[in-house]
Every structure is written in C-alpha cells, then in structure tokens.
Amino acid sequence: MKTLRIEGIIIARAPIHHGGDEKTGSETMLRRLKFLVGEKIVEVPYISGNAIRGYLRRLAMQDFLERIGYTIKNLRLYHAMFSGGVLETVEERTGTIDLELRKKIRNFLVPISMFGFAYKNQVLEGKLIVGHALPICRELNEYLPHKSNKSFYEFLDWEFATRKEELKTEKKEEEPKVQMIYRYEVFIPGTRFYHHFVLLDTTEIEESFFCHLLNLWKARNFIAGRSSAGCGEISINYNAQLPKPQIYLDFLEKNKEQIVSLLRGLDK
C-alpha cells in the first residue's frame, strides 16, 4: 500500500474569511475547531479541508473538460463531477455495481479517480485526502511541525461591509432605502497556515495530475470566501516531489477519444 503525504505552508496575502455557523447579530465569525491545549479546550479558527477540496475539485474538473473539449449535458453528471454527486436508488435489475465501468473510470477519468464521486448507483472513493489548514500559532505548537510564539488572536481582525435592505413592493418609492453595516472576522495578511494532502495508492499519472493541480491553484491562488470583495488571496508552497505535470497532460492528449467516449456513456 502506497501513501504519499505532501506538506506545505499557505500564507495569506489578503484578509481571509472562512465563515462558521456562529453569528452574532450582524457579525460573522471565522469557523473554529476545538483543541485540547494543556488542560483547557481552546477553539482555534481554521480553514476546513472540505473548503479547499471543493475549490480544487472545481479547478480540476473545469480544466479537464476544457482540455478534452467536452461539454457535459446531464445535470446529474455535472453535479457528480463538480460537487461529488449523490447516490441514487435504482431498479434492482440495474442496481448492480459495474466493475468494468469503475475500472475504466479509474484508468481514464483521472480527476474523478482522485476526487471520487457518486453517480447513479456507482460510488468511487477518491484517492486524495485534504487536511485542514491550521494557523501556525502558540496554541497549536504540540499539534504542528512548525512552532510559533504568537497566539492566533494576534492574527485576527474584522472587515466591514454594507448591505441594502431587501426590496419590498409595498414600500413607497420616496422612502429612503436602509443600509445595514455588518462585519466579518478575518485572518490578517501574513498569517501562515500549515496544510497537508495525502495521496493513497496513486499511479504515476495520478501523481502527475496532482502536480498539475497544484500549478492550477498557484495560478488561481485563492481560498475560502469573499474573494470577489478582495479576500482570500494566498501564496502556497508544498514539499511535493512528484512526476512532472506534462505526463498527465500527454496522457489526456493521447487518450482523448477514449476519454470522451467514456464521458458520453455516462452523460445520459
């Protein structure tokens, strides 16, 4: 069994906002994760692996479809590729697992093999595990390979914005619209995060794909929310020693017809 752990550092180049479920009036706080620090429970803000995985999945699938020149027609297949999909109930006669189809997907639809998906009654587990991005801070010294003398509280700040009230048809036109000021918690620029990926039993082509994916991320170097409002820009640096991306790109070019044919069979 082959396991590759790829570790790296993410550095905020702009404020980063990754909102949690907790809201206080017009305030949105960062998502937090509980850690046992000494004898105390400390809630540390972080960026979830699921958020990173979702962003990278969308980058990978869009790039994949553009390179093979294919446009998905079936909304269920689109959802399965870009969001992971949902397992569906099918008739008993058609509900058997198609092992040959699974093999073809593994061999030719490399991004799906890495991220996995659920489509109709077929579930393919992904080979890519995405860890949480944790701020390198004093509170997490016993959990991370990188140490710091600073508390995570020093990395936090608030951004402000305004939102107009919803349009109400009964409101008279001459009455002024009300603007609401709200704020959201952010990591400040310069915050450093420890992050890691794990690749499980990957082939050379899949590892080459992952190297290509890191390059795609560097080209569109954002994370978490509110990127359209100036948040989320990052720099990334991983210790990956992987096959060159060109191996994956050459594979796509060489097998384009077979890949498109396989997608058409799913796209019904």
Describe it.
- This protein is α+β, with helices and mostly antiparallel strands and 268 residues long.
- Helix content is 31%, strand content 29%.
- It has seven helices and 13 strands.
- It has helices at residues 49-68, 75-83, 99-108, 110-115, 204-219, 245-254, 256-266, and strands at 3-12, 19-24, 27-30, 32-37, 40-45, 116-119, 122-125, 128-130, 134-135, 156-164, 179-187, 192-200, 234-238.
- The strands form four sheets. Strands 1, 8, 9, 12 and 13 form a five-stranded antiparallel β-sheet that branches. The chain has a four-stranded mixed β-sheet with strand order 2-3-11-10, with no helix packed on it. The chain has a two-stranded antiparallel sheet with strand order 4-5.
- Helix 5 (204-219) packs across helix 6.
- It starts with a strand and ends with a helix.
Features:
268 residues, alpha+beta, 5-stranded antiparallel sheet, 4-stranded mixed sheet, 13 strands, 29% strand
What would a concise description of this structure say?
The chain is of the alpha+beta class and 268 residues long. It is 31% helix and 29% strand. The protein contains seven helices and 13 strands.
Mean pLDDT: 86
Return the string of H and E elements: EEEEEHHHHEEEEEEEHEHH
Helical residue percent band: 25-40%
- Cα gyration radius (Å): 22 Å
